[in-house]
# Entry
Amino acid sequence: MSNSRRPTNPAARRPATPRGTQVIVAVVAVLCVVAIVVVGVAVGGGSDDSNASGSVSQEPLAPGECSDAPAPPAAPKSYPAAPDPSLAEDTTWVATLSTSCGDIEVELDGAKAPQTVASFLQLSEDGFYDDTPCHRLTTEGIFVLQCGDPTGSGSGGPGYGYGIENAPKDGSYPTGTLAMARSNDPNSNGSQFFIVYKDTRLPVEGGGYTIFGRVTQGLDIVQSIADKGVGGGGGDGSPAQPISILSVSVEKA
# Structure
């Protein structure tokens, strides 16, 4: 291909080819071209565009790796009242929190905290938690990652509140505990929850904090976020490594 000489005229050097032979050669050439095209489509999918629909899905995140956190919802959903506790009572549930840093699996105790689990089920199934940031990390004295506020401000919620369930009398929250966050009002439980990544003791004044489940897989993800610390330093604030809940799926255990 790189030779710059002009090719000689084949007709000036080769004897004329019989007409029948020319036809056969032409047919064979066409068949070869068709075969090459078919093989190319079968192997390459008809396109070498790696971003085309149907391309290989993204590789799973490596331990400690996070994808970019999405923007939070522009208009968070709001509800007039909490769902009936009967939606979850006496039933154990398994929820998968798909996050920008990997999946966290939790077990929900509908027997000990039916109102809380019923609320979590409804919000999860309605997409309330989709693309919501985990806005608060504490690393001194209290060891939790707090999530569930679609505004990311720490003051957002679902529009309703309810009371405390299944709070430990001694204020002990073991590693892996899934519990509800609230204000000083004991009836201010809503959508915000926290994951305990190291044994923690919390105040019991005001009734404590509802335990409604535990982490069964993915606690290492929370620990990796904690290891990176609070943005700007200190022991309480937004995590230096952003993490968001992308979606939540729930099913009966």
Remarks:
- Residues 19-44 form the longest helix (26 residues).
- The longest strand covers residues 244-252.
- The chain has two domains: 10-44, 85-252.
- Residues 131 and 151 are 10 Å apart (CA to CA).
